[in-house]
Structure formats: structure tokens, C-alpha cells
Design goal:
The complex is a heterodimer.
Chain A: H1 2-11, H2 27-53, H3 57-60, H4 70-76
Chain B: H1 14-23, H2 28-41, H3 46-73, H4 79-86, H5 92-97, H6 100-127, H7 139-148, H8 166-183, H9 186-212, H10 225-233, H11 243-257, H12 263-268, H13 278-308, H14 310-314, H15 316-319, H16 325-337, H17 341-375, H18 379-399, H19 405-444, H20 453-481, H21 484-491, H22 493-526
Classes of the chains: A mainly alpha, B mainly alpha.
């Protein structure tokens, strides 16, 4: 039993060189967070705007999810 | 020329298109793997991650769609066949390099389906109200670890009581994946996911709001949301000097965007010439970035810090665990603190399972296309061969579960290093062999947006230099200087078994490519 507890205690012991990572959000942290969250949100917003303003998007825009491989279709028939 | 099946009633509205294109990127990479990497590297990870997104993710996603559609127009659907067309038909070298496509898909499937089973298992536990209390101090040691067999001495443990751990769910997932692929019913699950994925995103948004409004944990010092955000976003500049963090960031971008697998190349090969590539790819990449950084990141890490404490994330147990582990430990704590958390937990994990299922089914397609194309056999025969190979591989992943060493070895070598190598090959093929001018023309054909010229410049010069430099530093630092990775192979039997498995599969694929050349060359000379 004691050996199990010892193993667990070892497993969950914090590594010394990572201890500073538990600091609250710093100024540079805020800057990176705002830049990243804002950047991806703006990019997604712009893409949605472009998709919405394209003529007949359903005929030309694709993802893997809406493509059925021809061999699968063949087998199905 | 292969044609695309596209029922017109499929996407009824413009919003439906947006959801479908952006939602297609959602999967385990966003909600499970990304937080795992953040837990491993801390705030420093976000810097190489964002750089990799801009300099590698976006350009390579365009490359894959363009190369794939180009190859499809010439009658090829698998990476070895398409690389042969793009890289001048007489040169077998490029086809051999294309072997990474089917190899990555097959080997990643071997562990991906296991993680998929964890999602299904968690969903079942929530549905039947048998999920143990996540606030219990023994949640990790008494439930989470034994459920996936990751505890010390866990090798083979899943076979002892298979009905009470994730093994039974793996059997269900494996059978479901191959049943859908064999019967050609994958479309059914895809259509369902058109509705399910937006629901997953909405569900994730609700969870994020709950996480960001959680009170501080009085039992653990520094266990509050701000410390969680600090863990995520405060950069540790010293870590940036290590090549591993850069290769992990690029690997994560590739994994979650499904680039460097050969999956997009194969699917793009079924497109028509007039179909848009540029806007579709950009919307999918942006949707992926949003789900990953805004939803996946803000959900798991702050929650883990609040409920488990920052020290837990820094512990060796987490640092050495697989990148998929942390989400399954942190999220149940969040659901337990939520109103109707049991049902939120069920909806979240079942939708995540479905999102993962769509990805794993898609992952099989490049390998199926390759076997059909190279061996000149039917779809069912290809699926039977694939079933055998993946079954053997998954057995080893499920057997060697202690610290998820088999899974982790596959994750490092296949879904990080190998997809990195395939992406490098693709970029060089697109920018330097196909030619950036021809590549740009292919990309812009039917495009709904104009891409800035900087993308082409990036693809030709910056992306290859970036990829080769980071890879070179990684080999120098992590292979020659620091022998930890090499030692993990020389001293660990699970790692050796998995490496052997990868080499065996690679040899099998190379032999098939060698045999396929005769057929492909005959096809070329006969002008078929």
C-alpha cells in the first residue's frame, strides 16, 4: 500500500521548473490572448460574411463531409 | 473523370453552408488534444501555435485542396497516385513519398478509434447516470485511469473486465466504423453531423461561459479562472528555444485541420474543376481555429486549474500522459458543477464521439482509395485488408495502455512527426515541382475569393524553410543531443512494438506501390 501511495505522490509532485506557470494572467498574457481570440474570431466572421454573400454557395463550397467517394456510391448501387 | 455526388437539397440555406464548412473541422483535435498540449507546454505554446497557423496551416490547406483536385482530374485519388501525376509521371520517387498518406491514415486510425471509444464510454456513463463523482479525490485513480487502463501496471488490464471499461466501447466503435464504411452508409452519419456539429459548438459555448464564471476553489491555492488563463496565455520564453514545442504546435495545426494526412487530398480529388477551394478551405480553417482556441482552450485548461489546481497540470502524471488524457479528467468536473450537468455531459461527449466518428471514417478513405488504385481491387476487398491491419494495430494500442505508451508513441511519430514530413513534401511538391504559377492557377480556378500574393510567396519560400528548419532543429536537439526520445524507444517494449508495426505497415505500402507502377505506367502509355 505504501509503495502505491509513494508512486502516486511522485506522479503528482510538481516539477520545479514549471512552478512559475501558475501565475495569474500577466500583461503580455492579456495581449497574446486578445490578439489570438480576436484574430480567429475576426477571420471566422469575415469568412461567414463571404460565404453568405456568394451566389449559390451550396453549389460550389465543399468540405470532406459532403463529398461521397464515387467508389462508395458504386458499391451502394 | 470521377464525379462528385452532390444532392442539391443537401445544404438548404446559406447558414447551412457556413455551419457545414466551419463545423467540418471540429473534432477530438480541438476539444481534447489541443488542451492536452497546452497542459504540457503552458502559455508558451500559443506563440508557435499562432505562427504555425498563419505560416503553415493556411498555406498547406490550400496546397492540399489544389493538389488533390489536380490529381483527381487526371484520374487518381490516393496520395501516391496523385504525387506521381504532380511530380512528373516518370519519377517514381514522388509516389514512394506519397506512401506517407495511407500510412498515416492507417496508423492514426489505430489509436484515434480508441479515443473515440472513451468519448462513447463517457457519454454512456452520463446517460445511465453511472459516472462517478468527479469532485471525489479518487476520481482519477479509481475511475478515469482504470477506464482507459493508463494506471501503473495497466498493460492488458482492459481485457480483465472488458464490460466495465473502455474496451466494450472500442469494440462498438470499431464495428460501427467498418460497418458504415463497408455498407457505404457514411453519408448518413455525415448528414446527421451537419446538425450535430453546430449543436456541439453551442454546447461548448455554454460550457465555456460556465467555466469562465466559476468561483475560485477554496481548497486549493491559486485555483481560479485567472490562474487558468495565465497558465494558457502567459508565455514562458525559455520554452520557445526547444524545437519540440514548435513541432508540437505545427503537428497540432496539421492534426486538427486534417492536413498532412492525405485525407483532404483524396477528398479534393473527387471535386469538379469549377468548385471553390479557396473560400471553403479558409472558412474551415477559421472555424477550426475558433473552436480550438476560443472553445477548446478556454474550456478545459481553466476548468482543470480551478478544480484540480495548477500543480496538477504541472505534475509528471499530466506532463507524461498522452495529449488526449486531460480533457477526460477536467471536463467531468465542469459538468458536475453545472445545472443539468449530467445531460450536458451526455450531449457533449456523444456529439464529440460523432464528430470523431466522421473523422475516423474519413481517415479510412485515402487508404481504401490507395488499395483500390494500386491493387486494382474493389472497395469491399480493400476494406477487408484495412480491417485486418487496423485490428492488429489497435490490439497493441489497447494492450499497452500503461501511461498510454503505445498511443503516445503513435501520436508522436505518426500524428506529429510523419504528418509534419508529409506536409513538407506537399509544400515542396506544390511550390517547386508543380510550380507556384501553375499551383496558383489551379487554386484560383472557381475560387470565390482572391488570395493575396503573399500566400504564394509564403508557400514557396517561407513554409518550406520553416518546416525544414524546425525539423532539423528537432532532429538535432531531440534525437542527437537529448536522448530521452531515443531512450524511450530502446527501453520501452510498447514503443518498440509500435515502431515495428509502423515499419511493417510502411513496407507493405511500399511493396504495393512498386507493384502499382506497372499498371499506372501502362495506363499512362495507353492514355487511359
Amino acid at each position: 500500500m505504501s509503495s502505491v501511495l509513494f508512486t502516486l505522490a511522485q506522479d503528482f509532485a510538481p516539477v520545479a521548473d514549471r512552478a512559475h506557470a501558475s501565475a495569474p494572467l500577466t500583461l503580455i498574457g492579456w495581449v497574446i490572448m486578445i490578439f489570438a481570440l480576436g484574430g480567429v474570431s475576426i477571420l471566422l466572421g469575415w469568412c461567414i460574411y463571404k460565404v453568405v454573400t456568394v451566389n449559390h454557395p451550396e453549389e460550389h463550397l465543399h468540405t470532406q463531409a459532403d463529398i461521397t467517394p464515387p467508389d462508395e456510391l458504386e458499391e451502394r448501387q | 473523370m470521377p464525379d462528385l455526388d452532390r444532392p442539391k437539397e443537401y445544404w438548404g440555406t446559406r447558414l447551412g453552408v457556413v455551419f457545414a464548412v466551419a463545423g467540418s473541422a471540429v473534432g477530438l483535435g480541438n476539444f481534447i488534444r489541443f488542451p492536452g498540449l497546452l497542459a504540457k507546454h503552458g502559455g508558451a505554446f500559443m506563440i508557435p501555435y499562432l505562427i504555425a497557423f498563419l505560416l503553415l496551416g493556411l498555406p498547406i490547406v490550400f496546397t492540399e485542396w489544389a493538389i488533390g483536385r489536380y490529381g483527381g482530374r487526371h484520374g487518381y485519388n490516393s496520395p501516391p497516385g496523385i504525387f506521381r501525376i504532380v511530380g512528373k509521371k516518370t519519377n517514381r520517387f514522388f509516389s514512394y513519398l506519397g506512401m506517407f498518406g495511407p500510412l498515416i491514415c492507417i496508423t492514426v486510425f489505430m489509436f484515434y478509434v480508441f479515443v473515440e471509444a472513451w468519448c462513447l464510454g463517457y457519454a454512456w456513463k452520463y446517460l445511465t447516470n453511472t459516472m462517478p463523482s468527479a469532485s471525489s479525490p479518487n476520481f482519477v485513480t479509481d475511475f478515469a485511469n482504470p477506464f482507459i487502463g493508463t494506471q501503473p501496471g495497466g498493460n492488458g488490464s482492459l481485457f480483465i473486465d472488458p464490460l466495465n471499461n473502455s474496451l466494450i466501447f472500442l469494440v462498438v466503435c470499431f464495428a460501427l466504423n467498418f460497418f458504415l464504411v463497408y455498407r457505404g452508409l457514411s453519408k448518413g452519419i455525415e448528414i446527421f453531423c451537419k446538425f450535430a456539429l453546430p449543436t456541439l459548438i453551442i454546447c461548448a459555448m455554454i460550457v465555456v461561459v460556465r467555466v469562465l464564471t466559476l468561483p475560485a476553489n477554496p481548497d486549493i491555492p491559486n485555483a481560479n479562472v485567472m490562474a487558468g488563463l495565465g497558465y494558457m496565455w502567459n508565455p514562458d520564453w525559455e520554452k520557445l528555444a526547444k524545437a519540440q514545442i514548435w513541432i508540437d504546435a505545427a503537428g497540432q495545426i496539421f492534426f486538427s485541420l486534417s492536413i498532412g494526412f492525405g485525407v483532404i487530398i483524396t477528398y479534393a480529388s473527387y471535386l469538379k474543376a469549377k468548385d471553390d477551394i479557396a473560400l471553403s478551405a479558409l472558412t474551415a480553417a477559421a472555424g477550426n481555429g475558433f473552436c480550438e482556441v476560443v472553445l477548446g482552450g478556454l474550456m478545459v485548461i481553466p476548468a482543470a486549474v480551478v478544480f484540480l489546481g495548477p500543480e496538477f497540470l504541472q505534475s509528471d502524471a499530466v506532463q507524461s500522459a498522452s495529449n488526449f488524457h486531460i480533457g477526460f479528467i477536467a471536463l467531468p468536473s465542469v459538468f458536475e458543477q453545472m445545472w443539468a450537468g449530467r445531460w450536458f455531459g451526455f450531449i457533449f461527449f456523444i456529439l464529440l464521439f460523432l464528430a470523431a466518428a466522421t473523422s475516423s471514417i474519413a481517415m479510412l478513405q485515402p487508404a481504401i482509395a490507395f488499395l483500390e488504385e494500386a491493387l486494382d481491387i474493389g472497395r469491399h476487398a480493400s476494406i477487408a485488408i484495412l480491417l485486418f491491419i487496423t485490428l492488429v494495430g489497435t490490439y497493441f494500442v489497447v494492450y499497452y495502455t500503461e501511461n498510454q505508451l503505445a498511443l503516445e508513441t503513435l501520436d508522436i511519430w505518426m500524428s506529429t512527426v510523419s504528418i509534419y514530413m508529409l506536409a513538407t513534401i506537399e509544400v515542396l511538391l506544390f511550390g517547386w515541382v508543380m510550380g507556384i504559377k501553375k499551383g496558383h492557377t489551379e487554386l484560383m480556378h472557381g475560387a470565390h475569393i482572391r488570395l493575396p500574393k503573399i500566400i504564394m510567396f509564403t508557400l514557396k519560400y517561407i513554409s518550406p524553410v520553416y518546416l525544414i528548419a524546425v525539423f532539423g532543429f528537432w532532429i538535432w536537439g531531440d534525437i542527437f543531443q537529448d536522448d530521452e526520445l531515443v531512450q524511450s524507444i530502446t527501453t520501452s517494449i510498447p514503443a518498440q512494438v509500435v515502431i515495428g508495426l509502423i515499419l511493417l505497415t510502411a513496407t507493405f505500402i511500399l511493396l504495393i506501390i512498386t507493384d502499382a507502377f506497372r499498371r499506372w505506367e501502362r495506363r499512362s502509355t495507353e492514355g487511359v
